[in-house]
Amino acid sequence: MDVKTYRASSIQAALELIRRDLGPDAAVLHTRQLRGGPLRWITGVRRFEVDASARVHVPSRMNDDDSAAYPPETGDDVRGALPAADEQDYRSRYRDEATGQVADLQSLVELLSQKRPVPSGRELPEALFHLFTDLIDAEVSEDLARELIDRVRGVDELDDLMLLKARITRMVEEEIQVTGPLQLTPGTRRVVALVGPTGVGKTTTIAKLAANYRLREKRRVGLITVDTYRIAAVDQLRTYADIIDLPMEVVSTPREMREAVARLSNMDLILMDTAGRSPRDEVQIQELKSMLAEGQADEVHLVLSSVSGAVGLTKTAERFAETGTTSLVLTKLDEATGLGNLLPLLRNCHLPLSYLTNGQNVPDDIEPADKKRLARMVLGMEVGRKGS
Predict the structure, then answer these.
(1) Average pLDDT of the residues of the chain
(2) How far, rounded to the nearest angstrom, does the alpha carbon of residue 381 sit from its chain's CA centroid?
(3) If you write DSSP's letter for every residue of 88-133 in order, what string do you get?
(4) Whole-model pTM?
């Protein structure tokens, strides 16, 4: 059977295609409106399908009055004009197509049922809706904002915005671990290394810690730098060492690291500044790990910038875990437009926070991590203040 199928946005357009292709004597065998795939009811796009043949002998439907030329859209046809075998094939083809459409629709319904709608003013009490938008403004991801909102929906006081904020703050606070400042024991040397990617503020953080423990805590502090890759990195740290009056060692090999630590054995605190390493470079990560092992670091603080993206922060923490990281330092809080991006990191990296930095001033712009304050900052309820 010589049957061709034509698809168009209207019956009239399909008939025009048939007239041009098969001629004015072609017979229309079947018409139907397509669903346009599983998304047709969302997009609203209509499509029609028309089967026609120039060889099947039925009264022509290609007259000048197109409005009466085609069968109704209910799908009536001229199957009686076809041979029995062809009619059976015709029915089987359309039964298969209908079955496929039903399967597509079922799959779409299952997919949509798994997607949780974004809360809106019509679905949430006003206080919860305002809280949701505040979280988004603080750069908390939409999924995490929904989760937090769901966790407080069970409380009775849904109209009290301040109470809801307090509850969410406590939830986030419970997920944050802190270690407090470095603990030094008299008569015992403590070796603390700072590691992390390039440009996160390791050297400036080292200077802040050194100044605080030397000038305020009156401790004996020594510096070691392994950052011989970055231009002027050694000069930058040496400038700080000269101002604070601290001994400083520059090393580039594991052997030099052992010797430098031995020369500073009478110090209470040795602070080790390392070169920035790419978390994607396995060779650099392993070199850093070997250097830290030779320096016998007691603590390895991973320094990350709070202006980085949530995914990048989490992946970087995972890669630097190979170096034996023991705690986390977050820098540049004063430069971030929002700190909601820190929430996935605080949840997933399992490192306790030691310090937060919020500026370039040495030694002022650094503070021991406080979980309550950080929770409020992450949720956009408090901004980083300088000189704290």
Answers:
(1) 79
(2) 22
(3) HHHHHHHHHHHHHHHHHHHHHHHHHHHSPPPP-TTTS-HHHHHHHH
(4) 0.65
